[in-house]
Amino acid sequence: MKTRDKIVYAALELFNEHGERSITTNHIAEHIEISPGNLYYHFRNKQEIVRDIFALYSAELLERFTPIQGQQESLTLLRHYLDSIFTLMWKYRFFYANLPEILSRDEQLHLEYMAVQEKLQANLVDIMRAFVDLKLLVISEQEMKPMVTSLHIIASSWLAYQSAMSPKAKITEQVVHQGMLHMIAVVKPIATTQGVEELTLLEDGVKALNSRTK
After folding, report:
1. 137 backbone dihedrals φ, ψ, rounded to 5°
2. Are both 55 and 144 inside the same structural domain?
3. How many domains does the chain have?
4. What domain range is 31 assigned to?
5. For the chain, which terminal residue's Cβ has fewer other Cβ atoms within 10 angstroms, N or C?
6. Coil, strand or helix: which one is 139?
7. Which residue, among 214, 205, 191, has the nearest Cα to 83 in the 3D structure?
8. What one-character-per-residue DSSP string does 63-125 give?
9. How far, in Å, CA of 164 to CA of 41, rounded?
10. pTM of the model
11. E strand or H helix at 177, and its extent?
12. What residue ranges does this record give for the DNA-binding region (predicted)?
């Protein structure tokens, strides 16, 4: 792995474990046993590292939430998107937990974030249309965007909300699972009978995972 990539992944690990605010470039350099000068050869400051992490996150986010073409079993599709929510929230949890502050410090990053979220919203509406076509959901075209926005708010704000409600609480896999269960609960009222059955299967799977990771 190239030194630049080592720096980015080490920073992601440390930010997730200790919080972005408490980690300096010296901590990152020490973690991968390079000199601070070597780190500054690749990045002028910590904010540039955060931007590179965001680029990784954005690429993965849009890839995971691009509508899947072709015939797919509905439960497989639901599981894919639910797994993607967990993976992203856990893998980039420092970003989710402290999003407003991170964006407020970097206008360029904030603009990039808004552009990515606009693409994501369009993808999510298309994904919801696909679930309507699969007869899993009953929702009008006019109601789709507000529903997508509600789910997006939960996903992007859940960890920050949990941190605000319990400042000393550590972000764990169980906390992420709770957010996933909350999103399922929001979708259930617009689900068909088949949709409710499949969402309940996913809900039971998340609860089982939650109990195993305690």
Report:
1. -130, 150
2. yes
3. 2
4. 1-44
5. C
6. coil
7. 205
8. HHTSPPPS---HHHHHHHHHHHHHHHHHHTHHHHHTHHHHHHT-HHHHHHHHHHHHHHHHHHH
9. 37
10. 0.91
11. helix 173-187
12. 24-43
